[in-house]
């Protein structure tokens, strides 16, 4: 069945299909679904240049937190840490972005300037 429309129109038929499958089998397994979702999200993210540049900056900051010795120490001093970036897993990217955004920008920028990475500062 091909479904067209917005998210609300799509949710009900998908939910109905899953309910039918679950009712007719003891275990529900959708092979490679996580991988397929990952590919779709990555393809969509690649099409939006502003997201790409933002993700690139977050990735640089995250990598710095695992490459530098001073940067993670300064983060720890303010009770923060940043996960290592993983661009092939959208949920890890999301968690990394969330960690960076949870650091007050003034504090993060101050640390980045201190470790001589002013070009990584958030606006």
Characterize the structure shown.
With 123 residues, the chain is mainly alpha-helical. It folds into two domains: 1-30, no CATH class; 32-120, no CATH class. It has helices at residues 7-24, 33-46, 49-67, 70-77, 90-101, 105-114. It is elongated and about 60 Å long. The chain starts with 6 loop residues before the first helix and ends in a 9-residue tail after the last helix. The relative contact order is 0.10. The model has no long low-confidence stretch (mean pLDDT 81).
* Strands, count: 0
Poorly predicted runs are none
N-to-C terminal Cα separation, in Å? 46 Å
> What's the total helix number?
6
- Average predicted local confidence, pLDDT: 81
Number of domains: 2
Q: Could you tell me the radius of gyration in angstroms? A: 20 Å
Content of β-strand: under 5%
Q: What level of helicity do the residues show?
A: 55-70%
Which features characterize this protein?
single chain; 123 residues; mainly alpha; 2 domains; 6 helices
Can I get a quick summary?
The protein has 123 residues and is mostly helical.
List the helices and strands and how they pair.
Blueprint lengths: L6 H18 L8 H14 L2 H19 L2 H8 L12 H12 L3 H10 L9
């Amino acid at each position: 069945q091909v479904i067209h429309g917005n998210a609300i129109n799509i949710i009900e038929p998908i939910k109905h299909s899953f309910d039918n499958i679950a009712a007719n089998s003891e275990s529900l397994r959708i092979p490679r679904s996580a991988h397929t979702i990952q590919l779709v999200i990555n393809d969509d993210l690649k099409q939006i240049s502003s997201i790409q540049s933002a993700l690139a900056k977050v990735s640089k900051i995250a990598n710095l937190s695992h490459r530098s010795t001073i940067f993670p120490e300064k983060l720890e001093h303010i009770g923060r840490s940043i996960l290592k970036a993983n661009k092939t897993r959208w949920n890890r990217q999301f968690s990394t972005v969330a960690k960076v955004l949870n650091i007050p920008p003034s504090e993060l920028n101050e640390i980045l300037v201190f470790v001589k990475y002013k070009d990584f500062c958030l606006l």
